[in-house]
Specification:
The complex is a heterodimer of chains A (about 250) and B (about 240). A two-stranded antiparallel sheet of chain A has the order 1-2. Chain A has about 250 residues and is mainly alpha-helical. Chain A contains 12 helices and 2 strands. Chain B has a two-stranded antiparallel ribbon with strand order 1-2. By secondary structure, chain B is mostly helical. Chain B is built from 8 helices and 2 strands. Helix content of chain B is about 65%, strand content about 5%. In chain B, helix 3 packs across helix 4, helix 4 runs antiparallel to helix 5 and helix 7 runs antiparallel to helix 8. Classes of the chains: A mainly alpha (about 250), B mainly alpha (about 240).
C-alpha cells in the first residue's frame, strides 16, 4: 500500500504542474472553477475556450486525456439530473423528435452538464498532480487552522487502518463459510459496521500510545512546503485569470 | 467501487447553483467552521484528536457504501448525527467538513465551487440538527442502550431530511430550471428514504460503541454514575 503517499487519482510525474507548490494549485483550481460557474450559460464558445485552457494544462502536465476522461465519470449522476431537467422544467417548450422539451430546462440542463464537467476535470487535474501529503500541507499554508490539518492528517492515516481492519473482518467471515456474493456481502458489511468502528478505534488507541511513547505532543511535525515566489504565482495563475476573463467576456461578447 | 448512482446526490456538483450563491454559502461555511474550531478547542485534547480523525475516516469510508433505496437511486451516509453523538457537534461538524473537503480535492466528488453549499448542508445543518434532536431526547438516550439506539436513529433521519432542505433553500436562491415545488418534493421524498439507511447505520454504530465503550459516546457523557469505592467493612 502507498502508506499515505498516494491516492487513487494521483498520477506520478515530474512536470512543471507537478512541481508547483500545492497551495498555489489549490488557489488556481478554486479560481478556475468559480470562473467557470460565473460564466453565463448562453456563452457556449466561452466553455469551449475554457476547456482548451484545461487541455493546455494537461499537455504541460503530460496527462493523457483518456486517463482523465475515465476518472471524470464520477460526475455521471449529475448528468442524469441534467437530462431530466428539460422534461420537468416549466416555461415555453419546443418539439424535438416527438418529445416536448422546455427551453429553460434545456438551458438549465446544459448549464449543469457543462459546468459540472469542467469542474470535475479541474478537480481531477488537481488531484492527479498533487500527492496527499502536499495537499494537507498546502491547506495549512492557506491558513486552514492547525486543528483541522491535524484531524485531516490523522484521518488519512486512519483510512488505511479502517480499510485493513475491514479486509481482516471480511477474511474472517469468508473463512467461516460466509458466501461472498455481492448483495449478501453488503448486508453483512452493514451489520458489522459498528464492530468495525470499535476495532479501528481500539487499534487507533494503541497507535496513539505508540505515538506518545515516540514523543508525540499533540501537534503533528511542522508541515513544511516551499513558499511560492511572485514569479511562480504569476505563471500559475495564467489559466485561472484567463478563465475569469473569458467568463467576463461572456456577459457582453456573446 | 460501485458507480455512484444517486439521482439527487447530496454532494452537489459545480453549476447547480450560480456563482453568487456559491460564494455566499462559501462564506457561511467558513464562518460556521471558524466558530466550530473556536468552540471545539474545549472538546479536543491530545487523546480526542485521534478520535476525531478516526470518526472522520470512518465517515469517509462508510460514505463509499451506497445503499439502494429505489431502482436506480441510492443513498450514502452523511454522517452528521453519527459524528455529533460520538464527538459532539463542534468537532463533528469539523470532521464532516474535512471529509467533504478531501473528497472534493482527492476524488473530485462534489464540486469545488459547491464546497460551501455542501459543507453548509451536510456538516453544519446536518450535524447541528442531528445533535439538537439527540439533546432534546437525551432523557430517553440516557435511560438505556435501547433508548440511545432509538435516539440515534431518529436524530440521523431528521438530520438527513433537514440537510436536504438546505439544498432546497440554495436552489431557491441560486438554481434555475425546475419549479421549487418539484425540487422540494424530490429532495424530501428521496431523503426521507435515504434517512432510513442513515438511521440504521448510525443506530448500529452508536449501539455497538455504547455496548463496549460507553465512555466514547459524547451525548451520554457524564450520565452514567462514575465508579465509587464502597466500604464493605473489612472483617478480620
Amino acid at each position: 500500500m502507498g502508506a499515505g503517499h498516494a491516492h487513487p487519482l494521483y498520477r506520478a510525474g515530474d512536470s512543471v504542474v507537478h512541481r508547483l507548490p500545492a497551495h498555489v494549485k489549490i488557489v488556481v483550481a478554486f479560481v478556475f472553477v468559480l470562473a467557470v460557474v460565473a460564466t453565463p450559460r448562453e456563452a457556449f464558445a466561452v466553455f469551449g475556450l475554457q476547456f482548451l485552457l484545461l487541455v493546455g494544462v494537461w499537455t504541460v502536465a503530460r496527462i493523457p486525456p483518456g486517463w482523465l476522461a475515465a476518472r471524470a465519470l464520477i460526475e455521471a449522476p449529475f448528468v442524469v439530473l441534467a437530462v431530466l431537467l428539460p422534461f420537468f422544467a416549466t416555461g415555453p417548450r419546443v418539439e424535438w423528435m416527438g418529445m416536448s422539451l422546455a427551453v429553460d430546462g434545456l438551458l438549465a440542463g446544459w448549464n449543469i452538464l457543462v459546468k459540472g464537467t469542467l469542474g470535475v476535470l479541474v478537480s481531477v487535474t488537481l488531484a492527479a498532480t498533487t500527492p496527499l501529503r502536499d495537499l494537507v500541507s498546502g491547506l495549512s499554508r492557506l491558513r486552514v487552522p492547525s486543528m483541522v490539518c491535524v484531524i485531516a492528517t490523522l484521518m488519512l492515516r486512519y483510512l488505511e487502518v479502517i480499510a485493513a481492519e475491514a479486509r481482516r473482518m471480511r477474511l474472517a467471515r469468508v473463512s467461516r463459510g460466509h458466501d461472498p456474493r455481492f448483495v449478501w456481502q453488503l448486508g453483512a458489511t452493514v451489520r458489522s459496521v459498528g464492530a468495525l468502528f470499535l476495532r479501528s478505534y481500539e487499534r487507533g488507541e494503541r497507535v496513539h500510545l505508540a505515538m506518545l511513547s515516540r514523543g508525540y505532543t499533540g501537534t503533528m511535525p511542522a508541515f513544511t512546503t516551499a513558499s511560492a515566489s511572485t514569479a511562480t504565482w504569476s505563471v500559475a495563475l495564467v489559466p485561472a485569470v484567463a478563465a475569469a476573463l473569458l467568463a467576463m467576456s461572456g456577459y457582453w461578447a456573446w | 467501487m460501485e458507480p455512484h448512482t444517486d439521482l439527487v446526490a447530496m454532494h452537489m456538483s459545480d453549476g447547480i447553483v450560480n456563482a453568487p450563491t456559491s460564494v455566499i454559502f462559501g462564506l457561511v461555511a467558513v464562518l460556521g467552521l471558524a466558530l466550530c474550531v473556536a468552540r471545539a478547542r474545549g472538546d479536543l485534547d491530545d487523546r480526542t484528536a485521534p478520535m476525531a480523525g478516526l470518526v472522520a475516516a470512518f465517515v469517509f469510508a462508510v460514505q463509499m457504501l451506497n445503499f439502494p433505496i429505489l431502482p436506480g437511486v441510492s443513498g450514502h451516509l452523511l454522517g452528521g448525527a453519527l459524528c455529533a453523538i460520538l464527538v459532539g457537534p463542534y468537532v463533528g461538524a469539523i470532521c464532516v467538513s474535512i471529509v467533504l473537503l478531501l473528497q472534493a480535492l482527492l476524488f473530485a466528488d462534489g464540486g469545488l465551487s459547491a464546497l460551501g453549499t455542501n459543507i453548509t448542508n451536510m456538516a453544519l445543518i446536518g450535524t447541528f440538527v442531528g445533535y439538537g434532536v439527540a439533546v432534546a431526547l437525551r432523557r430517553v438516550a440516557t435511560r438505556s442502550r435501547g433508548g440511545l439506539v432509538v435516539v440515534a436513529f431518529v436524530a440521523a433521519w431528521v438530520n438527513t431530511v433537514v440537510a436536504s432542505l438546505g439544498f432546497v433553500l440554495e436552489y431557491a436562491i441560486g438554481g434555475e430550471g425546475l419549479a421549487l415545488g418539484t425540487v422540494f418534493g424530490l429532495m424530501t421524498g428521496f431523503h426521507a428514504l435515504i434517512g432510513i439507511g442513515e438511521g440504521i447505520i448510525t443506530a448500529l454504530t452508536v449501539g455497538a460503541v455504547a455496548a463496549v465503550r460507553p465512555d466514547l459516546v459524547y451525548l451520554t457523557r457524564g450520565a452514567a454514575p462514575s465508579l465509587t469505592i464502597k466500604d464493605q467493612g473489612v472483617r478480620s
